[in-house]
Design goal:
The longest helix is centred in the N-terminal third of the chain and has 43 residues. Helix 3 runs parallel beside helix 6. It contains twelve helices and two strands; from the N terminus they run ααββαααααααααα. It has a two-stranded antiparallel sheet. It is an all-alpha fold and 294 residues long.
């Protein structure tokens, strides 16, 4: 019996090790493919032009390869969605943890997590046929495809992530911390804001960063709601194009499978990968700090 247990544990260890190796190898393969094509791209396009030029027209007769319009569109969506999701998600988390009845919490939190499971293409169509007409109805001069609609949709998409992770961070604050504050005469609002939030700040910030990372990588919803017009103009009423939207455009066959225009796809992908990786590393540092002091 001990021998069977030993071999069973050994087999499980090997399976887990194999899974870890496959995961790491896949990541390295993705990085290698991005780097190989990107290096070929920078042999033909100066990196200074790539980072500073203000036009992105790789498929035109006179191609230009400035990634600034794509970066501008991406960060417009990130900032707009953060304005929607971060404060609203934090308020929902505070309510669920500090104010809501346990029965209400058991109902509302699964519903929020269910919202996170809706396909992004559904959110994109919702933005196109509901959000944009609503914005026009209230008098905003938005185009059919516009950054404001894309920001609102992505904000709704990342809202469950902010609310759920922030609520977990707030709920993990020891009960004794709250009771000590109540014993000193603090009100519920004072306990929630000055004591609980301060104790859970690392976990809350980590949820913010992870949500922003999700917003950076969102594709279909942004493509459908915000359009495909690369521009450096910061105008939320106009159509824009993000890095992910451009990748979708090229993947549909708008560029040949060779040449500089095709390699530009990998340069955008590597830029997106570096931004997302940096955000994830930053989030992990906050999570570790949160775990250390929790």
């Amino acid at each position: 019996m001990k021998g069977l247990r030993f071999y069973g544990e050994g087999s499980l260890t090997l399976i887990c090790l194999f899974a870890a190796i496959v995961s790491v190898a896949t990541t390295l393969g993705i990085i290698a493919s991005l780097l190989f094509e990107t290096l070929g791209f920078f042999q033909k396009v100066p990196i200074q032009e790539f980072l500073t030029a203000d036009k992105w027209t790789p498929n035109f007769d006179n191609p230009q390869y400035g990634i600034r319009p794509l970066l501008t569109g991406t960060f417009m969506i990130v900032i707009g969605s953060a304005v929607v999701a971060l404060p609203l998600g934090l308020l929902i988390a505070i309510y669920l943890s500090e104010y809501a009845h346990p029965q209400v919490r058991r109902i509302v939190k699964p519903l929020l997590e269910l919202l996170a499971g809706i396909p992004s293409v559904v959110f994109g169509f919702f933005g196109l046929i509901v959000v944009t007409p609503f914005l026009k109805r209230i008098g905003l001069p938005v185009e059919t495809f516009n950054a404001l609609s894309g920001s609102i949709i992505v904000g709704i998409m990342i809202l469950p992530l902010v609310a759920s992770l922030s609520e977990d961070a707030i709920a993990s604050v020891p009960r004794g911390t709250r009771e000590a504050a109540y014993g000193l005469g603090a009100s519920r609002a004072e306990v929630s804001i000055t004591v609980v939030l301060r104790s859970a700040i690392s976990g809350i910030i980590a949820s913010f960063i992870l949500a922003i990372s999700r917003a950076v990588g969102e594709t279909l919803a942004v493509t459908l709601a915000a359009g495909a017009n690369p521009t450096v103009a910061i105008d939320f009423t106009q159509a824009i194009q993000t890095m992910t939207a451009y990748i979708v455009e090229v993947s549909k066959g708008d560029a040949p499978r060779s040449g500089v225009a095709y390699q530009a796809l990998f340069s955008v992908g590597l830029t997106l990968f570096v931004i997302t990786l940096a955000l994830n590393i930053l989030a992990q540092r906050f999570v570790k700090r949160f775990q250390k002091y929790s």
